Amino acid sequence: MIITEKFARIAASHIEENLPSVCLIMPFNPKMSPKAEIRERLNASYEQIKKELDLRYPAKQSAATLKKLRTEISLLNHSAHTKSVCIFVSPREQQTYYFNIEVKRKIIIDQAFDIRDIIRNKSKDNHCLILMLNAGSSEIYLKGSQRTPKLISRLPGHGDPELWLRQTDSGLSILLNAYPYPLFVMGLPEKLDHFKKISLNTDMVMEYIPLDMAPVPAAAINKMLHPLIQDQDHILYLQALKQLRRADQGEKLAIGIREAHAMAGKINNRLLIVEKNYACQSVLEEKQDKASARIRDLVDETIEKALHAGANVQFIERKLPLRYANIALIYD
Fold first, then answer.
1. Which among 197, 212, 301, 328 is placed 20 to 30 Å from 69, CA to CA?
2. pLDDT tens digits for 271-307?
3. Residues 74 and 138 placed together within one structural domain of the fold
4. Nearest Cα residue to 186 out of 209, 164, 205
5. What total number of domains does the chain contain?
């Protein structure tokens, strides 16, 4: 039984019995954060949940749920290669799931859990890559939310400008695979023109920004990028289209709910792109008593399978082109 269906059933039954259920979604990246820091955040979340339950229930009714929550927190795997965790507890059930996506903390009490809550609660990273083509070198920067761009690659120029640009482009290909973010290319006009002719990554460029002189300080990069990345939903939509088209050309794309659902559990998946409100319901078990037939959403199942397999999932605010049939899965 999938998470959404199972937790919805459990939560509904406990609401009827006036018993508490809790879902805690929060960042959990043991490889990047000290264990003491993680435990401090978990304990703070536990205390907030306890305070909320104390306001809603007598201590006797919430004790079993809080005990299970404390147990699940103590049993978290601090050796896991993961970025987030979802803990669900009720008086009779407890489940913990690990995901490879960055999220903001969210506490859900006495409500049916929806797998889409995980995606809705993703961190807004607003990352982008910047390639700077200077007279004597190329530099690649990684920019995050409200942060000064960080230099992550530099290649000095040499006697053969074509060879230098091809080497730059080769390094850019590797970084785009590791950091699949919107790409902006800045530089002297003649360098930009040359890059457009030889690059294998022009299909991923969001915008070219000509400069009168290069390089420029990181603060100037921020200032030039600011008006271009203001509409983050639009930027994410354009980036999704670029990724879909590249994967489509490389025949590494499962298109539509049937193909995406069939492929979602495989470990070589990278990114599931879904229109935000897209749903595809299907009867799971049609019985003689039509009213008791169970309904499942194939989109929710696909999202859950992709998350468990380690893929990223992205909701898109706007309609995708008809070619991609509302949902598509990029794989390696």
1. 301
2. 999 999 999 887 555 555 554 455 678 999 999 999 9
3. no
4. 209
5. 3
